[in-house]
Amino acid sequence: ETGVTQTPRHLVMGMTNKKSLKCEQHLGHNAMYWYKQSAKKPLELMFVYSLEERVENNSVPSRFSPECPNSSHLFLHLHTLQPEDSALYLCASSQERGAGYGYTFGSGTRLTVV
Amino acid sequence: SQQGEEDPQALSIQEGENATMNCSYKTSINNLQWYRQNSGRGLVHLILIRSNEREKHSGRLRVTLDTSKKSSSLLITASRAADTASYFCATVYGAAGNKLTFGGGTRVLVKP
Question: Which residues, given as ranges, of chain B have pLDDT below 50?
Answer without folding.
Answer: 1-2
